[in-house]
């Protein structure tokens, strides 16, 4: 298997992250406001997001009103999940909720049902973030280490490297990180790699092999073992179930031609 050179791996990871941050149909500040409000636990985020959802229907992604609303829902839950995790919500909680709402979305039969589900989804994340903001306080060193991890998931991320980045010894950093996050450093990094892999499997066209290399797994087989241990599914099974573009056509029970499973 041909390895992706490290600079290319970094570019691929950053390209994926940048695609998640694109806002194309509204001004940046207008679009992002709803997610920042949600991230801070502001109850007003729900109505703000509903208004944006209604206005977004003018930017048709499909000629079918139901499918158009489903596409918009997927775009919004992708960003809501990302902002929630970046705001401190446990990744497993965020992705499990996202998966649950995607399953509910496939049961919606009218645009109004999608809009109601959207309100429920945004309310869920907003309430979770309100709780997180009351509970989560990190020291500067741990906060900076988490930011460093998020920006370097394409790297090996040895604990001594990250400890050095925040000017602490590896031993002290390990104890401090576990105390504040409730998770061992190595487990935290693995969870974040798998959470990112889940997102890439759902919302990008990267293959499982490419994802394993981009996220610095030593081999594809090791990636598959880790992914299955944390999610209960193989990467292929997860993509078949949750690939975002695979939302079923309303009433047809079939995927659109060319949609990847």
Automatic annotation (TrEMBL):
Pfam families, alphabetized: HTH_18
Domain HTH araC/xylS-type residues, every copy: 143-241
Keywords, sorted A to Z: DNA-binding, Transcription, Transcription regulation
GO terms of molecular function: DNA-binding transcription factor activity; sequence-specific DNA binding
Gene3D superfamilies documented for this protein: Homeodomain-like
Taxonomy, superkingdom: Bacteria
InterPro entries named among the record's database cross-references: Homeodomain-like_sf, HTH_AraC, Tscrpt_reg_AraC-type_HTH
Record has DNA repair as a keyword: no
Descriptive protein name: AraC family transcriptional regulator
Protein species of origin: uncultured bacterium Contig4
């Amino acid at each position: 298997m041909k390895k992706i050179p490290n600079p290319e791996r970094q570019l691929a990871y950053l390209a994926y992250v940048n695609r998640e941050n694109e806002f194309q149909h509204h001004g940046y500040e207008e679009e992002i406001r709803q997610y920042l409000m949600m991230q801070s636990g502001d109850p007003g985020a729900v109505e703000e997001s509903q208004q944006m959802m209604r206005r977004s229907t003018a930017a048709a992604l499909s000629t079918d009103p139901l499918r158009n609303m489903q596409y918009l829902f997927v775009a919004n839950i992708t960003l809501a999940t990302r902002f929630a995790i970046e705001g401190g919500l446990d990744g497993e909680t965020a992705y499990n909720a996202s998966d649950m709402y995607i399953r509910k979305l496939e049961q919606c039969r009218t645009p109004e049902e999608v809009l109601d589900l959207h309100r429920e989804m945004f309310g869920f994340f907003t309430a979770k973030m309100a709780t997180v903001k009351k509970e989560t306080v990190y020291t500067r060193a741990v906060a900076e280490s988490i930011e460093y991890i998020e920006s370097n998931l394409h790297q090996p991320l040895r604990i001594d490297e990250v400890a050095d980045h925040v000017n602490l010894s590896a031993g002290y950093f390990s104890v401090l990180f576990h105390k504040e996050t409730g998770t061992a450093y190595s487990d935290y990094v693995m969870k974040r790699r798998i959470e990112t892999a889940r997102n890439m499997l759902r919302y990008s066209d990267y293959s499982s092999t490419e994802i394993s290399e981009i996220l610095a797994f030593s081999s594809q087989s090791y990636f598959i073992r880790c992914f299955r241990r944390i999610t209960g599914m193989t990467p292929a099974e997860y993509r078949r179930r949750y690939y975002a573009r695979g939302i079923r056509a309303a009433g047809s029970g079939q995927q659109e031609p060319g949609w990847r499973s």
